[in-house]
Every structure is written in structure tokens, then in C-alpha cells.
Amino acid sequence: MNIVIYGTGGVGGYFGTRLVQAGNNVTFIARGRHLEAIQKNGVQLKSIKGDYLVKPANATASISEVKDIDLILICVKTWQLAEVAKQIKPVLNDNTMVISLLNGADNAAILCNIIDAKHVLGGLCKVISKVEDFGIINHISYEPTIIFGELNNEKTKRAHLLERTFLNAGIKTELAEDIQVAIWTKFLFISTISAIGALTRATLGEMIIIPEIKKMMRKTAEEIAIIAKAKGVNLPEDTIDNQFKIIESQPYDATSSLQRDVLDGKPSELEAQNGAIVKMGIELEIPTPVNDFIYYSLLPQEKRARK
């Protein structure tokens, strides 16, 4: 399969490398010194599931150089998604599939507003990995997983083809029965831990052992579940309990990418996570006081970072 990884960070670098390892033709989209390092030294993956070096690596800053694309996996930050959609639009052929693996609940809708909806499948991933240095990806923990599906949940021929492609690459894969439930479950998980981690400047383990913070995290999740239900997403009743079991099973020193971005003074996914819940709450006239507090407490720093 001819695949483009748009954004060679912790997520794109991991999944792209495994897809190369399985024999797919993969082009990595990167920029700056990261791109230079990849072009010179390849993509170096360090992983608890086994290291791998892609060298030489097909890497460029411009997707316009890539032809006959079967699949584009978008792995940038959520706030960059609309611009990426504009960049990929000219290179799409009739059969190109596009999946966003980003955090957020509205990624497919953002894509469908810019490119033809026939190209778009819903998707998400689960992995804890990061760029350790230019050209070097470090997979730290968690079984790397891709969950995806057609937006209407139909089990199409192309969906089954992608399922086989991911499985052949050794990637834990789920063709979702209801992709919106899967997306909102991941959204609830990440939005419960990320911004509050930035606010407290604490690791996941440090937060969980303080009852008052854990209670605040729980209320954050409850508000998200209420919003999801109001939007017609049928989250199972045990979703929050199950997500907290996963949260409590993570390494004590785990942090989220949003948290690391905030602490580094970089633009983050705050708007796409707790900020999105605040805005949905306003639109639906549903109070979201805990998400409000977290979002507005971090908003001044977010605005500074975006300048």
C-alpha cells in the first residue's frame, strides 16, 4: 500500500515505521531539522516492542511530491488539522483514504468540511511515544493501537483492507462497531488527564494518589459523558469506570503530549480537548464547571504560546 504519514512525531513515527517494516511504501511528511535528520539518518524507532530503523526513508516537507496515494494518516496536532486538510486536497485520487489519528471529537467533521467526505474514515490511536531527538522516535509504553471505521459504521471492502494492512504490520487494530463511541471514549480518556496534568504540573501517578484531584478528574469525565449523550453518542454506562481503570494502570510518571506542550511553552491541544467541551456545553446549554475551570485557567498561557 502507498501510505503517507502526515506528521512524523511520536504517533506518526511509530505507526509509519511499523508499516514500512511490514513492506508498505511509506512517505513521511516532516519539516525543519527533524526532516533533515530523517533524510540523512532515517527514522530511528526505539520501542518496548522492538527497535527498527527505516533507512533510507522516503521523507519530504511537501505532500505535493507524492503520487498515487492509497492512505493518508494524519498525525499532527489537532489545531493543525484544517491546514493539513487544505494541503492534502490537491493530491487525493478517487480511492485515497484519509484518517485522522488525532485527539479530539470533531476531527472527521473538520476534514469533511474541506475535502470530499468519501475519502474520510473516523479514527483514533492509543500509544505513548514521543520525539526523543531529531529523527528519533521513542515508544515508551502502552500497546500501540489503531481504532478506525467508516463514518456510517459500514464494514466496507476498503475498511477490511486497512484492517489487514494494520494487522500485518503488527499493530493492534480494531474495526469499530461504532466509530463515534470509540472516538468519544478516547476523547474522554485524554481530556480527563491532559489539561489537568498541565494545570497541576504533576505526573499521572502524582495526581491519582491525591483524592481531591482524582475527584476533579472524575467530574471532568462526567461532564464529557453528559455532552456526548446530548450529541447522540451512546457511551456505555461503564465507560468512565473502565477509563479510570486504564488511567490507574498507567506508569506513575506518565504525562500527556498536551501537558508537555504547555510546560514547554508550545501551542497545545487545549482548544480541541477541554476547550471543545466548554464550547459544546455553551451551545447545548449544559453546565461544564470543572472543564470551564481547567480550560480558562490554562487559556492565558495557551494564547501566549500561539503568539
UniProtKB/TrEMBL annotation:
It comes from Lutibacter flavus. It comes from the Bacteria. It catalyses: (R)-pantoate + NADP(+) = 2-dehydropantoate + NADPH + H(+). Catalyzes the NADPH-dependent reduction of ketopantoate into pantoic acid. This is 2-dehydropantoate 2-reductase. Belongs to the ketopantoate reductase family. One of its GO terms (cellular component) is cytoplasm. Keywords: NADP, Oxidoreductase, Pantothenate biosynthesis. The keyword Nucleotidyltransferase does not apply. Residues 3-152 form the Ketopantoate reductase N-terminal domain. Its EC number is 1.1.1.169. It is an enzyme of class 1 (oxidoreductase).
